[in-house]
């Protein structure tokens, strides 16, 4: 994979705006649950760089390897709370918006577990990780292991 524009090193008001939104979300929503959502969405989108980064961030916040390993099969596991399940089902619906169109039953299930402010922050968080995934994949942001392999 050939790396393209290093958008992470490129500073302009667009990138600064995305970073500012991330700072707002970090103050507005449960950081550990948000990292879980970011890992799940990054799995769905196939973003190796974001998977690596958000897995590391989740571990730093006390997430476990077992839960991260089972995240792709969260529906089959008893390791996830009702609130986490609500966030994950909503994140999946928004990530697959062209297929799901965010059905009413999923909206109601998810919204019932969060205040209006939390639900909005979660939804913006899902939109943001989808945006970052698209930028990282589109610009071929490399996974750290790829950097090591290229240097060897």
UniProtKB/TrEMBL annotation:
<dbReference type="GO" id="GO:0051920">
    <property type="term" value="F:peroxiredoxin activity"/>
</dbReference>
<dbReference type="Pfam" id="PF02627">
    <property type="entry name" value="CMD"/>
</dbReference>
<dbReference type="InterPro" id="IPR004675">
    <property type="entry name" value="AhpD_core"/>
</dbReference>
<dbReference type="InterPro" id="IPR029032">
    <property type="entry name" value="AhpD-like"/>
</dbReference>
<dbReference type="InterPro" id="IPR003779">
    <property type="entry name" value="CMD-like"/>
</dbReference>
<protein>
    <submittedName>
        <fullName>Carboxymuconolactone decarboxylase family protein</fullName>
    </submittedName>
</protein>
<feature type="domain" description="Carboxymuconolactone decarboxylase-like">
    <location>
        <begin position="22"/>
        <end position="93"/>
    </location>
</feature>
């Amino acid at each position: 994979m050939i790396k393209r524009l290093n958008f992470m090193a490129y500073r302009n008001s667009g990138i600064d705006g995305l970073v500012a939104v991330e700072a707002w979300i970090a103050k507005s929503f449960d950081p550990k649950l948000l990292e879980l959502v970011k890992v799940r969405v990054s799995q769905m989108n196939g973003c190796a760089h974001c998977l690596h980064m958000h897995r590391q961030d989740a571990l730093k916040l006390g997430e476990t390897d077992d839960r991260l390993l089972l995240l792709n099969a969260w529906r089959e596991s008893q390791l996830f709370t009702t609130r986490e399940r609500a966030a994950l089902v909503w994140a999946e619906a928004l990530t697959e918006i062209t297929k799901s169109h965010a059905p009413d039953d999923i909206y109601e299930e998810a919204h019932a577990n969060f205040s209006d402010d939390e639900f909005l922050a979660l939804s913006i968080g899902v939109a943001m990780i989808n945006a970052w995934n698209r930028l990282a994949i589109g610009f071929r942001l490399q996974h750290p292991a790829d950097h090591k392999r290229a240097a060897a």
